[in-house]
What we know:
With 159 residues, this protein is mostly helical. It has two domains: 6-58; 69-143, no CATH class. The chain is built from eight helices and no strands. It has helices spanning 6-20, 24-33, 40-54, 57-65, 69-78, 83-92, 100-111, 117-143. The chain is flat.
Amino acid sequence: MSKMSDHELQVIIQEFAMSCNLPQKLIRLLLELGVLSGDLIFEQSLLIKIEKIYRSEKFIKIALARLSHKDRQRLADTCQLNRFESHVHTRAYCEKPPSVSELLAEVEAIFKIKPTAQIKERIKTIRKRSINKFSYMLKKYDEAGAGKVRSDTTGKGKQ
């Protein structure tokens, strides 16, 4: 695909998304991966096939089956989060999570997001949910008599 302006790319993404009832994020990913070339007329039959695969519950089950239970759970926990929110969740899901101000500084440095009251509140919310989820996981694990879990959550078992 030749280099095109952001506006041209956005128009193509919108046209593709409207023509085949697929999310714009998926269209953007397919363009970045080189699966789609940018020519809507040429790609129409491919888009119809992609839509069938995308909407197939069987395909999703097969794709998820290759992941561990822990990875499937992590995916389910973060699928509704954007990139910076997912980062905050991952960093806060541990025994000693960073403070809100540390997470805010990380988000600003990594994602170049200007810290606002709304961003800070979102970080607080996600951090709290992640800590609660981790505490629940520890409690559930201890009740099963499995002992203490590693704090790095890499899935390598007991400490």
